[in-house]
Amino acid sequence: MVLVVSRLPLPLEIFLQGWDNATIAGAVVYIKKELTLDASVEGLVVAMSLIGATLVTTCSGSIADSLGRRPMLIMSSMLYFLSGLIMLWSPNVYVLLIARLLDGFGDRASVYSGSTIYI
């Protein structure tokens, strides 16, 4: 039972990335219409979260080692929540791109810090 509970956070955090990809895939139709995006900017809006996730993956382990795993998990949760609020009220595509980048930072930083707390 302990092994099952200790392995639970990692699939849940990976689920967040999949959930994010699925929601942006459905929302991009309305975003494109609302902000009048061309195809290249539309692709950038979709990919910006993955770009942020890739950037933070390269350094999240060393940041978590220096700050600690729990503060890193709290920081990533706050980034994920803040990016959701910014995406909700983004007035233009540039703010939306920054929010999607923060979304990738918060989402991927939690994978490396959150999964090791419970193990």
Please name the defining characteristics of this protein:
transport; 119 residues; 6 helices; mainly alpha; disordered N terminus
Question: How would you characterize the overall build of this protein?
Answer:
The chain is an all-alpha fold and 119 residues long. Helices cover 87% and strands 0% of the residues. It is built from six helices and no strands. Helix 3 runs parallel beside helix 6, helix 4 crosses helix 5 and helix 5 runs antiparallel to helix 6. The chain is elongated. The two termini are 13 Å apart. InterPro entries: MFS, MFS_dom, MFS_trans_sf, Myo-inositol_Transporter. This is Monosaccharide-sensing protein 1. Its main location: membrane.
Rg over CA atoms, rounded to whole Å, is 15 Å
Distance between the termini: 13 Å
Tally of individual helices: 6
CA-based shape: elongated
Brief summary:
The chain is mainly alpha-helical and 119 residues long. The protein contains 6 helices and no strands.
List the helices and strands and how they pair.
Layout (H helix, E strand, L loop, with lengths): L1 H5 L2 H27 L3 H19 L2 H8 L1 H20 L4 H25 L2
Helix pairs in contact: 2-3, 2-6, 3-6, 4-5, 5-6
